[in-house]
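[step 3/7] inverse_fold.run input=structure_tokens len=331
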């Protein structure tokens, strides 16, 4: 299964600066456009696939606007979501807050609007967590238990689930930093069950959580389920899993493969390169930027296992050193 394109954000002056779940504006615009297309097509019945495709071809450029004028008026929930999109892309905090409040007046369970308000008003990490929990609960109410049962397995493919999935991912990403690793894992696992295709890249951070918590059975299952994953995160995760499982011969084999996948990760893990202070804006496979993203997912797991860090240092040939440099968790 393919992973989504990795996105990164520069550090922001918000309490949850380490989270990278907010999609860039271009993706929000695409999501909004897909919602508009869906609304324009509502009420139309097509005899053949060709007829449907022909109608879709008319929804380009100004055609979509004309079609929406003839479509049924948007519901209060749809109006709220439109306001939320505008709030997320607003040029100022004041305007963002005003738009989000307007959205919540139309739909108190508008997830994206709740997240915007949380971003603007939260002053502590605990307040951010509380706000995101409120957003997740709102999404669950809005979608309904029956919707979850009927659509489990391909959630991300439905536009109406996106705000909920984003909010729950952000919440899960924050919880380990508050000492609630088990709670975070529960959310990550739920996201994977809802969308096994993993468009959000949940498996990267979940693997790090499993390894940090010595949950090796679950780590092995995840590595097996996504055995085709050739990312640096999974290559270096496999190395650590094999070492923690006591199979040093296999760990050495995985290490050789991980070095081929991305040699820069080892330089950071052994403190031969200084840890960066910001996430890169983009990356390519095997690059230094990919290594930084890998560290964002796995540095905590490696730092929590000093024997693994010592073993990695020894693999470099520095067996005479009394101890490796102390490691730090990244971000």
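[step 3/7] decode complete -> sequence:
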């Amino acid at each position: 299964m393919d992973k989504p394109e990795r996105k990164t954000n520069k550090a922001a002056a918000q309490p949850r600066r380490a989270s990278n779940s907010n999609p860039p504006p271009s993706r929000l615009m695409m999501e909004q456009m897909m919602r508009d297309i869906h609304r324009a097509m509502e009420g139309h019945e097509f005899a053949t696939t060709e007829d449907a495709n022909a109608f879709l071809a008319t929804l380009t450029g100004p055609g979509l606007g004309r079609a929406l004028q003839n479509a049924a008026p948007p519901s209060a929930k749809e109006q709220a979501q439109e306001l939320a999109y505008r709030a997320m892309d607003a040029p100022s905090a004041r305007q963002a807050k005003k738009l989000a409040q307007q959205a919540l007046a139309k739909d108190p369970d508008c997830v994206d609007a709740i997240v915007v308000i949380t971003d603007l008003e939260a002053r502590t990490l605990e307040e951010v967590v509380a706000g995101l929990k409120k957003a997740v609960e709102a999404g669950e109410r809005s979608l309904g238990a029956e919707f979850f049962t009927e659509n489990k397995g391909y959630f991300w493919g439905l536009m109406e689930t996106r705000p909920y999935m984003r909010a729950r991912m952000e919440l899960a990403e924050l919880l380990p930093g508050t000492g609630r690793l088990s709670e975070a894992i529960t959310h990550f696992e739920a996201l994977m069950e809802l969308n096994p295709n993993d468009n959000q890249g949940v498996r990267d951070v979940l693997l790090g959580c499993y390894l940090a918590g010595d949950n090796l059975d679950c780590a092995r299952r995840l590595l097996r389920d996504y055995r085709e994953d050739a990312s640096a995160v999974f290559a270096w995760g496999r190395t650590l899993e094999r070492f923690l499982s006591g199979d040093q011969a296999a760990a050495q084999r995985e290490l050789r493969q991980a070095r081929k996948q991305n040699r820069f990760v080892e330089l950071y893990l052994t403190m031969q390169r200084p840890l960066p202070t910001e996430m890169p804006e983009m990356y390519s496979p095997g690059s230094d930027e990919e290594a930084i993203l890998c560290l964002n997912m796995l540095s905590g797991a490696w730092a929590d296992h000093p024997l693994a860090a010592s073993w990695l240092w020894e693999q470099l040939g520095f067996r005479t050193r009394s101890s490796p440099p102390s490691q730090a968790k990244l971000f």
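[step 4/7] annotate
Residues 201-331 form one domain.
The first helix runs from residue 25 to 41.
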